[in-house]
Amino acid sequence: MSSDFEGYEQDFAVLTAEITNKIARVPRLPPDEKKQMVANVEKQLEEAKELLEQMDLEVREIPPQSRGMYSNRMRSYKQEMGKLETDFKRSRIAYSDEVRNELLGDDGNSSENQVEC
Fold first, then answer.
1. Distance of alpha carbon 49 from alpha carbon 53, whole angstroms
2. What would the mean pLDDT of 22-44 be, rounded to a whole number?
């Protein structure tokens, strides 16, 4: 039983490491690759959520006297998942701002370029 949980833990660790790596790469990619990477990260975040759900189900089947340790680990994994989602949102915002600037021809210094009256 706990071996299933530990297998899910290993899968979760590998997946979150991949997601972290990809999130860090998003801002530096060319626009066409960024769009593809964002879609890929979204898919992997969904997979990670599904793993957490499976792990949660496993924890519920553990006898109450042994459940505490696993519950603490689950809390930690859920916090990690929240951090990944926040980091991804920030990465997407940076990506969106960059795309907006490209479309508008804005170099990010628009307030400095305004003529004072």
1. 6
2. 90
